[in-house]
Specification:
The complex is a heterodimer of chains A (259) and B (278).
Chain A lengths: L1 H33 L7 H14 L3 H32 L1 H16 L6 H8 L3 H25 L3 H9 L4 H38 L4 H10 L4 H29 L9
Chain B lengths: L13 H6 L9 H23 L10 H14 L3 H32 L1 H16 L6 H8 L4 H24 L3 H9 L4 H38 L4 H11 L3 H35 L2
Helix pairs in contact in B: 3-11, 4-5, 4-7, 4-9, 4-10, 6-7, 7-9, 8-9, 9-10, 9-11, 10-11
Classes of the chains: A mainly alpha (259), B mainly alpha (278).
Chain lengths: 259, 278
């Protein structure tokens, strides 16, 4: 009986969600047809998507270029951020030397450095990777640092009492305890990385999804412009769902909402 | 609250101090500050030395930047007006973002139906890097004025919203029950129970949002309307005036750090109040 009521509630809710979606799309369609240049509308976006993705095949190569820069940059940022973050969190001298600069760069919009980076790295893949690294590395580093510092002292004392070497302490106590923080950092870093790669592509690059948006935007064809924009939205959703999944796989004990 | 012993240096966690009892002597303030100063000097000297070996259009040594600081701040007086413009856009977008984020967060946190209906759309829209919306927003708002505030708003509203929802859901059920049992109206409930207990969450969201809002201002000024601090950076970059370009970049760094520290200070007070309330 209870089960049935629960299922009925579920079904009712899904019907409601679907109904709301239909309403949103219909209102958009009606409003957009009256004013296509400003709003566009779902059916126009759908035809534009077919044209751009299948007929002209412009979206997939652009997306691949974006993902390429994102992947290289994010891996470098993750390794660098986690290693330096743990070093700063556990070694006082490293903290003294690096922390003021890390926190200053963390607080600064690194986007401001893009013009400088164009001078140094040109406008190709290197630039995108560097911008992604700079965008993503500091949230990862600072979160890892915070995680490494907030380990329960009782665990550290236990490790010390059993004469654990610094490496053993790091591997068996500090690292597992820091996982929620590290993943919180990785998730923030991933969002920033996506923004970074798109900025690099929009301001400097000649390839990628950001570049495609600029090209289509120049023609004021809102329906076509919205296709790569929505592709980026889907990419964003996929990446954050992927990060959450990765966290459950890598550290099921640490499924705590991080900041 | 005042008669409780407080940690003299909240920056140092207890375990480090306790465990490394002997080594604590090593990290006295004079030693710490010596290390900090030495590191800073080494960086500046290395930067200066390296700066003289590469082209002036690619890199600038600190001495050249110092000259540029004098020129831009005092002789040409372009920095302060630019800062004022950037600050104006920041506030015009950030304040509405906080208000909308908190109000929508309170509603969505309290009313499950609305949360279920809106969450998919909000998640999707905010998964789009807002930067990608700039060409569209230019069509909607033009290049001048509101566009920059709109970008700041889009950049910063999401963390406030998400954190507010999280904070509202974490409110102690018992407290709500007490309020309801005492016939509190919805508004009273929000004002006296929900908002105070969600405040630390909201504040975390605001702090994250501030960083994103700064990025939003700079991006808007660099890509859409060439003005303010971001406009200066891109202008000097286009003319390969690298020493001049460093001036707004470094100014931006200092301002960002100061804003962030101010935010942390307020948050520190807030969390003390929170703890004393327990």
């Amino acid at each position: 009986m209870r089960r049935m009521r629960e299922t009925r509630r579920r079904v009712g809710e899904n019907v409601l969600l679907a109904g709301f979606l239909v309403i949103v799309l219909s209102v958009w369609e009606l409003a957009g047809r009256g004013n296509p240049r400003v709003l566009s509308y779902p059916s126009q976006i759908a035809t534009s998507a077919w044209e751009l993705i299948v007929v002209e095949n412009k979206v997939l190569p652009a997306l691949l270029a974006t993902v390429e820069g994102l992947a290289y940059g994010f891996v470098i940022a993750a390794v660098l951020g986690i290693v330096v973050g743990f070093a700063m969190g556990r070694i006082r001298l490293v903290e003294l030397v690096l922390y003021p600069y890390a926190i200053a760069l963390y607080a600064t919009p690194r986007i401001a450095l893009v013009p400088l980076l164009v001078l140094w790295f040109g406008i190709d893949l290197e630039l995108r990777v560097v911008v992604v690294v700079l965008s993503a590395v500091f949230p990862i580093m600072i979160n890892t640092y915070n995680g490494a510092r907030q380990v329960d002292p009782a665990y550290l004392d236990a490790a010390a009492a059993f004469a654990a070497t610094p490496w053993q302490t790091l591997r068996t106590v500090v690292m597992p305890a820091s996982v929620p923080y590290v993943f919180a950092g990785l998730r923030v870093g991933m969002v920033r990385a996506l923004v970074g790669v798109v900025v690099a592509e929009m301001t400097a690059s000649v390839v990628g999804t950001g570049r495609l948006i600029i090209e289509l935007g120049a023609f004021f064809q809102t329906g076509r412009l919205l296709v790569p924009v929505m592709v980026l939205g889907v990419l964003g959703v996929v990446l954050s769902v992927g990060m959450a999944k990765a966290q459950t796989l890598a550290a099921p004990w640490a499924m705590r909402e991080g900041r | 609250m005042n008669d409780q012993p407080t940690n003299p240096d909240p920056g140092v966690t207890a375990p480090v101090a306790v465990r490394a009892g002997g080594r604590r002597l090593l990290w006295r303030p004079p030693v710490v500050w010596t290390i900090r100063v030495v590191v800073f000097v080494v960086i500046v000297v290395a930067w200066e030395a390296y700066g003289h070996t590469v082209s002036r259009s690619l890199f600038a040594p600190p001495s050249a930047i110092a000259v540029a600081v004098w020129r831009l701040f005092v002789e040409q007086q372009v920095m302060l007006p630019a800062l004022a413009i950037s600050f104006g856009s920041l506030i015009a977008g950030f304040v509405p973002a906080i208000v909308v984020g908190v109000v929508a967060g309170l509603v969505m946190g309290r009313v499950r139906m609305i949360e279920r209906l809106l969450t998919p759309y909000i998640v999707f829209v905010f998964s789009i890097p807002y930067i990608a919306l700039i060409p569209l927003l230019v069509v909607w708002f033009g290049v001048e004025g509101p566009l920059r505030a709109v970008l700041v708003f889009l950049a910063s509203v999401f963390p406030v919203l998400v954190n507010t929802i999280a904070g509202v859901k974490e409110v102690d059920r018992d407290l709500i029950d007490v309020a309801v049992a005492n016939c509190a109206t919805n508004l009273q409930l929000i004002r006296t129970v929900v908002l105070p207990s969600a405040l630390p969450y909201i504040f975390t969201g605001v702090q994250v949002a501030l960083g994103l809002a700064l990025v939003g201002v700079i991006v808007a000024e660099m890509t859409a309307a060439v003005t303010g601090i971001g406009g200066l950076i891109i202008t000097y970059a286009n003319f390969f005036q690298t020493a001049e370009m460093f001036v707004p970049i470094i100014t931006l760094m200092i301002v960002s750090v100061m804003l962030n520290q101010a935010m942390l200070a307020v948050q520190g007070r807030l969390s003390r109040w929170q703890r004393s309330g327990e």
